[in-house]
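thread: overnight batch results

M.L. [08:02]
morning all. the overnight job finished for the chain we discussed friday. pasting input first so we're all looking at the same thing
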Amino acid sequence: MIRFSCLKLDAAFNRAQKEKIMRSTIALLTLAVLSLTAPAAYSDTRMDVGASFVNGDMSGFYFALGDYYRVPEREVMFIHERRIPDYDIPVVLFIAQRARVAPGVIMDLRLSGRSWMDITLHFGLGPDIYYVPVREVYGPPYGHAYGHFKNRHRKDWHKIRLSDHEVADMVNLRFMSEHYGRPPEEVMRMRSGGKSFAVINDEFRRGKPGKESREREQYQDRRMDRRQEQRQDQRQDARQDRRMEQRETREQRSRQDAGPEERAQRGRKDQEPGREGKGQGRDNGDGHPGKGRGRD
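M.L. [08:03]
and the structure it wrote out:
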């Protein structure tokens, strides 16, 4: 009886061991399958077309910078790897574009400790390159920066000295507005609301509707109107130029055609009888001309 009970306990123990081993095996197989499929699924959900996934949502920001400034994305990444803050990367590309030098030159000057204004003046540029025309200023951080330009006459703008943060805010404002065709006032409001430029770029890139959609449409309409006015002015100038050219051509042809006729008329007049010696008296017989026939 005791032996039978021991055999029964051994059988139950063996079944428990087998079940434990089976559960462990299933768990290991499940983990192996997940480890193979998870990276692919993760990359599919986070990677954008034409942009590599780097530092979360910053990939779209880097890609947009390369597209706007016409530089390869790897060059933007190289600037990031040189320990240039992300919000300063547009400043590097902007000054390099205006100064017509390689971005590496701007990076070296910046990493040597120079301010953005020092680098700007180093290449003979002025603070006016950072000014973005707006109808209304929303701040901070733009209120103080625009105060420099508002409180001075335009001829004195070269005396303005913007801080590094003001330069970065102004350059990013221009980049966001021009690249996505959004009103600069919209970018200002989003920035003053606490959103970073990476977040603003992500919302613009994904086409997320905002409160300023109507203003954006009006801004684009104004741009189209200005372009049409410029085209009309160009067409009017071209028509005036053609009219002046046609008038000059007609006058030149008229002078060329009238020249021989005038010479022929002058020649015929010179050959008329009595043309020669007109106004001279007749000879009195003494070898001297007189005023007509003398009296005896």
